[in-house]
Amino acid sequence: MADAQISSLRATAHPLRLQMLSLLTSTAMSAAEVARELGITHANASYHLRQLHDADLVVVEGEERIRGGMAKRYRHLVDRAESKLTDEDIAGQVQAMCAELLRRFPLRQKGKGTFTDAEVWVTPEVWERAVDLLVEASLLVHHEAKRPRTAGTVPVNLTVAGFRMEKR
Question: For the HTH arsR-type domain, which residue ranges apply (predicted)?
């Protein structure tokens, strides 16, 4: 496995880094801002942001002068081209997604939402349409994400895993 793939796998397989990627989808933030939002130390946030940057999962969108120093502002670019993921990469991401879903589930509010689980047989055309709709929903929430706690917004979870299975 290439070094870049290993770095990406390690970066995305950590639940805290998945939280950071979600947070940085909506806006560029400094390590101090990420630390405050996630309730972690500045040093911990800086470390994990460096790991994400080294794995090419976040970019430095700018810098700002803060108390005599320079603070980098990081952002996760959802539309950035992804490298081909190995089965190992995907397995690590699935484990991290499951951990995040378990962390977020107790925070759910009653009301509109959806839960679904399906292991079914459909035509290839139906499957293609379903995948297109899942991608559309994912891009919608990522592109419309706002800075945390922006007036008029609510926190939401969207965890999607859709894949074609081998015939048994």
Answer: 1-92
